[in-house]
Design goal:
The chain is an alpha/beta fold and 404 residues long. The protein has helices at residues 4-9, 36-49, 59-79, 93-104, 126-135, 152-158, 181-190, 210-213, 238-243, 278-294, 296-315, 342-351, 364-370, 386-403; strands spanning 17-18, 21-22, 24-25, 87-90, 113-117, 138-142, 163-169, 194-198, 217-221, 232-236, 254-257, 262-264, 320-323, 332-337, 354-355, 357-359, 375-379. Strands 4-10-9-8-7-5-6 form a 7-stranded mixed beta sheet, with helices on both faces. A hairpin with a 2-residue loop joins strand 1 and strand 2. It is globular, with a radius of gyration of 22 Å. The structure holds ligand 7TS. The site of ligand 7TS has 17 residues, from helix 4.
Length: 404
């Protein structure tokens, strides 16, 4: 089991005050906090071996290159990719999705079909709409039910030999639903479609095995797994990455350049034009080491306890409605107080030192489905406690009293 007070001591930010109250950080689905070991990795990089990579004969450049490539191998091992060159460093999930969507422009034709789900973050909707505009492909949507679960019977009917791509998040950021991606992948492959899974919200809770899933693309952001912002990854099966054209042109992604013709570098460099976020990539590796040392099974068990506790306590508040009651869900609770705007509740909670997110969570179609402007979202990580949930529950009661 987790020693949560020991874990909390790893995170300097958790001991700060906000508005003269101890910080209660429940906005983990937006970004996770950073442990000392990751902060130290960043300081060590800039203090001791800051240099550009893959291009210098000098010692600093070689050290930075070695550590960056070791980080790639850590990510490969974490996701169980077959080859390290199947891991592409990007600036985050959004960049990874755009890279794939852009690549498919060259592979799709008018009338081809793309399937997304009703539970997507805008970053897994807009790039595909742009792709459809460029190619004439048609976007279809797997609908959801009142619990916030995808309706698989409709998915089965949407699939046909016209389906070329399926894009679904592993876990919904707005509701916490864990989607049946094994089923989704298997069914898509049966009609010859490729599958991209958006793992931005799953990676903080689950250790995905891309080979066992047999998924074609899997994407994630470091800042949701205790790493820094501005760095993330794209896993792609080697054959797919070889098939996709490069996303950006520039230095590092070429084999040879002349004004007549340019040939591209091998994977992974073909997709990594320009100077990358070197320090970020190395810190991403350190963050995964940190989380793996705690253990994802331990993390999931503990977070499920927090979820059950918070669901029970919040449900006792009259007029509070929870959105997203899927059978399989992670430690995210979206809720509203009857007749009160979520923003007003969030503002009062902030005065009490409690950080939650309010609004549509970049998932407007979900809010439209429930006919609401947004929700208050509390999202828990392995360093949160039941005592903090008690503080939230008291804060929500206070907000209700003040705003009713
Ligand atoms: N996909 C999902 C499912 C997400 O939750 C997010 C970010 C993204 C993609 C985009 O990730 P980025 O790192 O490229 O920005 N989600 C949230 C959120 O729920 N609140 O703030 C960001």
């Amino acid at each position: 089991m987790l020693d949560v007070s020991k874990i909390r001591a790893d995170f300097p930010i958790l001991s700060r005050q906000v508005n003269n109250k101890p910080l209660v950080y429940f906005d983990n689905a937006a970004t996770s906090q950073t442990p000392e070991v990751v902060i130290d990795t960043i300081v060590d990089y800039y203090s001791n071996y800051n240099a550009n990579i893959h291009r210098g004969v000098h010692t600093l450049s070689q050290e930075a290159t070695d550590k960056y490539e070791i980080a790639r191998q850590k990510i490969q091992a974490h996701f169980n990719a077959k080859f390290s060159h199947e891991i592409i460093f990007t600036s985050g999930t959004t960049h990874s999705i755009n890279l794939v969507a852009n690549g498919f422009s060259a592979l799709l034709k008018a009338g081809d079909e793309i399937i997304v789900s009703a539970l997507e973050h805008h970053s897994n909707i807009v790039p595909w709409q742009m792709l459809c505009e460029r190619t004439g492909a048609i976007l279809k949507v797997i609908p959801m039910n009142q619990e916030g679960e995808l309706i698989m019977e409709t998915y089965d009917k949407l699939l046909s030999n016209k389906t070329k791509l399926v894009f679904v998040n592993h876990i919904s950021n707005a509701l916490g639903t864990i989607n049946p991606i094994e089923y989704i992948i298997e069914k898509a492959h049966a009609v010859g479609a490729a599958v991209l899974i958006d793992g931005a919200q799953s990676c903080p809770h689950i250790k995905p095995d891309v080979q066992a899933l047999d998924v074609d693309f899997y994407v994630a952001s470091a800042h949701k797994v205790c790493g820094p912002t501005g760095v993330g990854m794209l896993y792609g099966k080697e054959a797919w990455l070889n098939k996709l054209p490069p996303y950006q042109g520039g230095g590092e992604m070429i084999a040879e350049v002349s004004f007549e013709k340019t040939t591209y570098a091998d994977l992974p460099h073909k997709f990594e034009a320009g100077t990358p976020n070197i320090c970020g990539g190395i810190a991403f590796g350190a963050a995964l080491d940190y989380m793996n040392a705690i253990g994802f099974d331990n993390i999931a068990t503990y977070e499920n306890e927090l979820l059950a506790y918070a669901t029970e306590k919040l449900s006792t508040i009259e007029g509070l409605k929870i959105y997203g009651t899927a059978k399989h869900k992670t430690s995210v609770i979206s809720f509203n107080l009857e007749g009160i705007h979520p923003y007003d509740v969030g503002t009062i909670l902030d005065k009490l030192g409690i950080a939650v997110r309010t609004g549509h969570h970049c998932a407007q179609p979900i809010m439209d489905f429930f006919c609401i402007p947004g929700t208050i979202r509390a999202s828990f990580a392995f360093y949160n406690t039941k005592e903090e949930i008690d503080i939230l529950v008291a804060g929500v009661k206070k907000a209700k009293m003040m705003l009713s």
